Automatic annotation (TrEMBL):
Keywords: Membrane, Transmembrane, Transmembrane helix
Transmembrane domains' residue ranges: 6-27, 39-62, 68-90, 97-120, 135-152, 159-183, 195-216, 257-279
InterPro entries found in the cross-reference section: BilAc:Na_symport/Acr3, Bilac:Na_transpt, Na+/solute_symporter_sf
GO cellular component, one term: membrane
Topology of the protein relative to the lipid bilayer: Multi-pass membrane protein
Superkingdom: Bacteria
Protein location: Membrane
Name the record gives this protein: Bile acid:sodium symporter
Chief location bin: membrane
Length: 306
């Protein structure tokens, strides 16, 4: 399903993305984020409690094949990706909080993902299960460029900013390239894929957005923080899931499992764009309401004095 060149490119892209993500962090971001500890805890809970269950439940309800179920659960267990930070920025959510939640979920991933995959795929044939230690080693290895990026930003803020921008742009370009080359080559597969797979990869993100938002509001977060958690919950690291599958399986089995993270990555961009426009409009409305609330009391005071 993926050529040797595409697998190599995917590996290099993940290193660049993780390097850029680390370089995006400053100590100011840590200080700002730790002013919102509840939001980080809620986001972490949404990421590793809600999403794996949502993905598994969808696979069960839609009666997906065992291979497709593995792909779905893997998507649900993935940490947030840098894509969520991009959409958080454009939706006028709290970018520093989004970055910090991504970092926290990524650092925890090499422990949480193997445990969750072990739990949710325990009834599936052993040939389809990804060895937990293999997932842990891969995710731990990807922490190294993240930590180097953090160190580089600390040593030289200007170089760190350039690396952050370069990593984000190159990562986006590689994702677009991989989708642009994969879709034409696998169009027959897409045409013959059962409708339940389309429903699963589309709904896992949409349900994640909604659960993340309403779960946050239920626990007392304000709307802006809730929108940030919502985006972080619904947008999983699809390219990382694809890398895990491509390094764990081969041949027909790889194609069956890889179909889920690839299709998820394609549709989550569309879903996130729609949600971002909606969230951005809500943010503008709230800002306008706050501005009017500041003006109106002053106007009424002026009128009464006359």
């Amino acid at each position: 399903m993926l050529s040797a060149f595409e697998e190599t490119l995917l590996s290099v892209m993940m290193i660049i993305i993780m390097f850029g993500m680390g370089a995006s962090l400053t100590f100011r971001d840590f200080r700002i984020a730790f002013k919102h500890p509840r939001a980080i805890v809620v986001g972490f809970s949404s990421q590793y409690a809600l999403m794996p269950f949502i993905a598994f439940a969808l696979a069960w309800l839609l009666n997906l094949t065992p291979a497709q179920t593995v792909g779905m659960v893997l998507i649900g267990c993935m940490p947030g990706g840098t894509t969520s930070n991009i959409f958080a920025y454009f939706s006028r959510s709290l970018l520093s909080l989004s970055i910090m939640m991504t970092i926290c979920s990524t650092i925890a991933a090499f422990v949480m993902v193997p445990l969750l995959m072990q739990f949710y795929t325990q009834g599936i044939d052993d040939s389809l299960r990804i060895p937990p230690d293999q997932i842990g080693r891969l995710l731990f290895a990807l922490l190294i460029p993240t930590l180097i990026g953090i160190w580089l930003r600390r040593k030289n803020a200007n170089i760190g900013a350039v690396v952050e921008l370069t990593g984000g742009v190159l990562g986006a370009l590689v994702i677009i390239f991989l989708l642009a080359t994969w879709v034409p080559r696998n169009w027959q597969l897409l045409l013959t894929t059962h409708w339940t797979v389309y429903v699963a990869v589309i709904m896992v993100g949409l349900i994640g957005f909604n659960f993340g938002y309403f779960f946050s509001r239920l626990l007392g977060l304000n709307p802006q923080k809730a929108r940030t958690v919502s985006l972080e919950t619904g947008i999983q690291n699809g390219p990382l899931a694809a890398l895990v599958v491509s390094l764990s399986f081969a041949g027909e089995l790889q194609q069956q499992i890889l179909l889920i993270p690839v299709m998820y990555s394609l549709f989550i961009v569309i879903n996130s764009t729609v949600v971002t426009f909606f969230y951005r409009k809500r943010t503008f409305s709230e800002e306008l309401a706050r501005d009017q609330a500041k003006i109106e009391p002053a106007s009424s005071t002026s009128s009464s004095s006359q």
